[in-house]
Amino acid sequence: MPVKQIQSGLSLPEHVYVRVRELSEKNGLSQSAILRQLVLLALPILEKGHGMDVSRLIVLQEETVLALKVLINKLAPDEAQDLRARAIDMACEHHGG
User: Running DSSP on this structure, what letter comes out for residue 5?
Assistant: First the structure.
């Protein structure tokens, strides 16, 4: 069932608009779709009272991935072989794609 969309006006600084437009063109998505994804990513973080430091979030995510890879390679090397393919399958199943 489609989600009802409410149109709202949004003013952006020009440099932000350019970045959104470039992402839109690069990914073959509308600018609205790009902005929706960004808002849906940030809302839960901000609603919980956390600040938005995207660079820190990316570094923490990468550190977590690396730590898990090290552990899995040491503790279950047979499972590590197809982990990426399984993760992609799960992402598609749970997040579309």
Answer: P
- pLDDT tens-digit series, residues 74-88: 998 888 878 888 888
Looking at residue 97, what is its pLDDT? 61
User: What is the C-alpha to C-alpha distance for residues 30 and 76, in angstroms, rounded to an integer?
Assistant: 42
| Short-list 24, 46, 45, CA closest to 36 | 24
Distance spanning both ends of the chain, measured CA to CA: 17
Q: What would the two tokens of residue 9 be?
A: 């006006």
Residues of the chain with pLDDT under 70: 97
The Cα–Cα gap between 31 and 17 comes to: 9
